Amino acid sequence: MKTRFLQVLALLISIYVPLVCAAPNKQFEELMRVGVRMHDSGNYAESIDIYKRALEIDNNAWAWYEIGYSYLKMGDDDNASRAFDKVVALDPTYYKAYVQLGYLFSKHERPDVGNALYFKAYLINPKGAVGSLNNIAINLRQQGLNKAVDYYRLVLARYPDNKLLLFNLSQIYFDKGFEYLTDEEINKRNILNTALVDFEKLRNRPTVFYDKELDYFIALIHLVRGDRERGKEHTNTCAKSSNAEVQSKCKKMAKNGYRLQSMIEQQLFIKEIKKILASS
Fold first, then answer.
1. Average pLDDT score over the chain
2. d(Cα 135, Cα 141) in Å, to the nearest integer?
3. If DSSP codes are grouped into helix, strand and coil, which group holds residue 265?
4. Which residues, given as ranges, of the chain have pLDDT below 50?
5. How far apart are CA 59 and CA 78, in angstroms?
6. Secondary structure (3-state) at 145
7. pLDDT tens digits along 35-61
8. What angle do CA 173, 244, 218 make, to 5 degrees?
9. Residues 165 and 159: beta-carbon distance below 8 Å
């Protein structure tokens, strides 16, 4: 603790002393840079102190945003929310603050307000806040898979090349396939076929943001459908994944003879996949 204090003190001295004779704008910018560095080092409380010093020079939306972000990282949602409110009061076009407020309302069981804020961010900056559309879909998913599917389809009509949206839509179809009982094979098969088309479409694009994890999904769908040969092909591919957990699961599937013994085992695989994706 003492060593950390001395390091912080030395850093502050090295910054503040040259700032004494600097112009106000220069002081503000230098303090903000120091605050960001402190934040990136995990020193959130110290970064907030520095940002507040910057606010004494200029009551600036950027400084309030960084304060809110540091509070968010500390788990202090109330102070984070107050800071983000200050941001939009000073600059109603600061879309990132709306994204963070959307997250906070969604986290605290107000997804309706969260979605409105996410969408406001998107309207201000469609390119920068396109991820907000995915956040809206996540909230809608809690209200039922059908609602989320309809929304994803609508958004993908506007952004057909958005890999994250396509991936999540495919995952919803995949989950939806396992909502059905075993005696509803036709319905289940049709939904999984739709997921398979989307996963393969995503996999064949030049840049894919998961390394061979998609092959895990594709292999599992093929095995569920009874296509052991194609399931084997994709299982062997995902066994080479750079993700150790994916690699382990695929090797286990190969060891089991590329077969899923029961619906219970299939459900377990689904849960394992979700854990893997959450940690990616």
1. 75
2. 10
3. helix
4. 17, 19-23, 179-184, 186, 208-209, 261-264, 276-277, 280
5. 20
6. helix
7. 999 898 888 999 999 999 999 998 999
8. 25
9. yes
